[in-house]
Design brief:
mainly alpha; Ubiquitin Conjugating Enzyme; 3 helices; UBC; UBQ-conjugating_enzyme/RWD
Amino acid sequence: NNPPYNTGAFRFELTFSRNHPLEPPRATLRTPIYHPSVDPEGRVCQPLTAPEHWEHTTRAIQVLQDLLLQLDSPDPQRVLRPDVARELRERPEEFRRRAEEHTRLHAEPRPDP
């Protein structure tokens, strides 16, 4: 809902293991995104689903809400792409410009409300 990603829609996938809920689901973005917490393969740095932090009582909706919050508000401390995190910290205007352009090129149209 916030710039630089609010002009597009991003497709992602939650994969659940056979051992769920004892093991966390894995979130993967299927739409390319310019984001410090998402690597080029779509893997997401999401502490909530890290095995050392996972609680078997965590619900899928909580995982989705956490993912959306993280994508909406990039945190340069949750990093899979150090170069993008550095740009966010040191040159936020350049980061925003690149993220907006990447969103324009790769994101899907947002559905009507």
